[in-house]
Amino acid sequence: MNTVTVIAPGLLGGSILKTLRRAAPTTRLKVYARRAATRRAVSDTGLADTVSDSPAEAAADSDLVILCTPVHAMRGVVEELLPALAPSAIVTDVGSVKAPVHAALAPLLAGRAHWIGSHPMAGAEQSGLAAARDNLFAGTVTILTPAPDADRDAVARLRDFWATLGARALTLTPARHDELVAEISHLPHLLAALLVNTVSGDSLPLAGPGFRDATRIAAGPPELWLEILQTNRAATVSALEKFQAAVARARDILAADDRAALARLLTAASERRREL
Amino acid sequence: MNTVTVIAPGLLGGSILKTLRRAAPTTRLKVYARRAATRRAVSDTGLADTVSDSPAEAAADSDLVILCTPVHAMRGVVEELLPALAPSAIVTDVGSVKAPVHAALAPLLAGRAHWIGSHPMAGAEQSGLAAARDNLFAGTVTILTPAPDADRDAVARLRDFWATLGARALTLTPARHDELVAEISHLPHLLAALLVNTVSGDSLPLAGPGFRDATRIAAGPPELWLEILQTNRAATVSALEKFQAAVARARDILAADDRAALARLLTAASERRREL
Fold first, then answer.
1. Residue B217 sits at the chain A interface (C-beta within 8 Å)
2. Could you tell me the domains of chain A?
3. ipTM of this predicted structure
4. Which of A161, B36, B52, B53 is the most buried (most CB within 10 A)?
């Protein structure tokens, strides 16, 4: 990729820029940001070669355009940059939910550029450009959700791009992505939030490293997680109901003092977690 | 404390020894370990000044005896070391549950030494002496559970001891300790184990740092957690039932697509977790 465009850099987009500066220093970096303060921050830190207030200007002559806006804003920004896209360009995103993004963007981009969704399984409790890091993707997984008829060469190039950032790419359909990520990301976030809300105020001063680790994700930006949970509502409700059944079983095991069943539960979890 | 005895050093007892070597190098350290391999490991690493296969020998002339065995083994080991205890000695433990330990040991030790329970809110997924660290207690909390008639000077000395290790001491009754710790430690462990067991095998390869953090505690030693959950069963069942109700409410909020209620839930959790 000679030229990469980041649309709306926050934690993820900013971390892409920082990592490319380190790992691919000859890549030309272009940025679109709606807010003047963000454009100034990008300019001041030299994170990009050009910074623009026009999505089309930022996307022109780009080999890869990465959408980092909230999911609901992606369609609008793609409509703005569409006329400037090279037909050989790849357009991707970093949204946490894939079927709705695919449904919104695939028809718009058909025949205009190579559209392939991405979801980097990386993040932090902090959000915004100031929290960006040049190693956020190291050792992580990025899920690609190409359509069945996606250009194989474009998928390979996008996979290589994520590898440059340190992430291993896996491929799933958008629908399967949303199901699996409901279990491994959206459900855990909701449970961490419920745990934080449920424990009594008297117990909080006793929190040790275990509680802190277990609930760290709950500190994440509420507006981002509200959008994620609403957008992936059906799959998250299913995952939550499966978990509800497991909690009910565990409650019965504990209430009945069923030592063997409790030992099986704890041993299975310890082994499965250690294998991760 | 001139002389400190650690009974059965594993992760916690070993970390106490390592930290004292660094932070209080003139303190004489004595160890009892049942297994020859543990005694050899302590000798080989110079973690203690004397290592014995007799609890009484290890406890003789000691200012502070720290019980690091599983909770069910504490009574037996105290019966063995009782004849060797100086009347001015403090006996404490590091067990995760306090009312049953207090019930077992307070009558045995009455008039024989100063019995004050301790629960350091520190730990790791690894167990055993090999995982011990000289900074395990830095910035953590240790809960002391003295009886109402406990010697004030002894409580103050035990508080200072934990401060030397880097831990801030709080005081609670044994029963209140068990209630609060069920919420802040035992419930989170059980939930992390259930989450690990419940997610589908297909979703595990997608696990990001959020899922890893949220479930790290589930990797802990199953036999230790089995004892903790069984010993603190009533309080943990109560905490679990409170959490069950919160999960049911969250499921209804999500299923009904109640945006305002979901936003309140996420915002409250994010703010409360950030304050921690």
1. yes
2. 3-172 (3.40.50.720), 177-275 (1.10.3660.10)
3. 0.89
4. A161
